[in-house]
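#struct-queue
[09:14] JT: dropping the first one here, sequence first, then the structure tokens:
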Amino acid sequence: MASFFQKFFGSAAAHPVDDVSLATLVADMHSHLLPGLDDGAETIEQSLDLLRALQSLGFRKLIMTPHIMGDFYKNTPDGIRLALNKLQSAAAVNDLGEMELECAAEYYLDEWFGRKLHAGEDLLSFGGAKKYVLFETSYINEPFNFNEVVFQLQSSGYQPVLAHPERYTYFHGRFSDLERVRENGVLLQLNLNSLAGYYSPSAKRVAEKMVDAGMVDLVGTDTHNLKHTETLRTKTLQSEYLRKVLALPLLNSSL
């Protein structure tokens, strides 16, 4: 029986994208493919379909980042690594062994994250000795302790990476505040589908402004499902701003 991936993409999935290739990025450092951990893939089969989709787009390495949130997704480093091992084994027996698979996490800036930092708990980072830690915030409410958490991360030897800042409405109309965040040493990660207006017109405008200002350090697909990879293929790859962001000195290829 054909997989859902094959039904969804058809024979075109086996061919590289003609317009713009994402292969120069090498690595996607933000996705939710590990099965059964959050609002991303629910099963190994779904994970494998998403692996195939991202491989067909040119990626050769995936750093998967399940949510860690005190209220909803109480994932632990051990549990995330266990899910990674299972997916690596499944990928190897399904002819996907050439795709390099690693894990980190997307930490939600809440009181539980603050407790982890105060307790000195090890965080799931990526980038080897660079120790990049991906974190997100509420989309609407600006965290009162944002600067404190950034300082704690830096003091603990981590390099903070703010996930998809273009999606936080509290930055909309306050671009200078986002500039200050980056000036204070926080790397900024853009969601590629923001360039196609997938999330909202306002997120698209902020994303474009970030690209124009050279304020993008990393890009990620933030893949949760095949709708995200299909949007990448049919819309984002045709975006003028995708070409612009790929011309920036992004860190993806060094991961």
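[09:21] JT: and here's the second one, same format:
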Amino acid sequence: MRKFGLLPVAVCTVVLTAASTAFAAETGGCDSFPWSVKTELQWMKASESEALKSGAKLPSPPEKAIALSLQPMSAVSFPVAPTGRLKPEGDVYGGFVNFDGPSSAPGLYQVTLQTGGWVDVVQDGKSLKPTAHSGKSDCDGVRKTLRFNLDPGPFTVEFSNIKKDSIKFAIRQAE
């Protein structure tokens, strides 16, 4: 029995090393989101974006990133209270953009942020529950992406608990 005592340990070591090496090869990054964010990455890195102040209104989401100027959370009058808890460590900012409707047909849309923070999509006076969300800390250009089902008609995208006084984001119909 003694001569087989080290064999299971050696086998486990080889298996764990192989598994951790395979896991390390899947470091994540921009290609590891559950859906493509290639369009959003192009928009976020482009020099041209739609510059807006909190409270702005657009007919529909543009086919480019939006650079939104935010205000301290205490100064923002959100159309609907954010669903995320306020994180009082340091200065946090918020803001929102109103849209007359989705850019094309109603359906599944994705909201993608360049930095972290809380996102609410509001329609008919209620915060919509995201159908899916994902975040990566090792994707240069995209930090978080969420999907929402939008009906026809106006909607608002609200941002809260942002650590900077501006945020770059994009909205487009999901593929």
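[09:30] RK: nice, looked through the second one.
[09:31] RK: Residues 17 and 23 are 10 Å apart (CA to CA).
[09:31] JT: good to know. The helical segments are 6-25, 38-45.
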